[in-house]
Amino acid sequence: MRHQVEASESALVAPSLARPGIATLQPKGSCWYCDQAVDNVRRFCSPACRTDYLEEEEGYFDPPRSPQA
Ligand SMILES: [Zn+2]
Predict the structure, then answer these.
(1) CA dihedral for 24, 30, 33, 35, sign (positive or negative)
(2) Measured in angstroms, how far is the CA atom of residue 67 from the centroid of ligand 1?
(3) Confidence class of residue 35 from pLDDT cuts 50, 70 and 90?
(4) Model-level pTM greater than 0.85?
(5) In 3-state terms, what secondary structure has residue 2?
(6) Exposed, middle or buried, 63 (CB in 10 Å: 0-12/13-18/19+)?
(7) Span from the CA of 44 to the centroid of ligand 1 (angstroms)
């Protein structure tokens, strides 16, 4: 793994880019969270789905430390 490298790289990223996920999502014609069909320019069918997706994504991008690391 490259934990050390990733830590260094993220340290170089501006703090304002604290949310790397949502800005890179591309509208795909369905909700990113629940897969319900939406407008082609939308990424979520509702604000609730957007919120839930972001909450899950926070956990994905900032996983808890492995106790055996
Ligand atoms: Zn949805």
Answers:
(1) negative
(2) 34
(3) very high
(4) no
(5) coil
(6) exposed
(7) 5
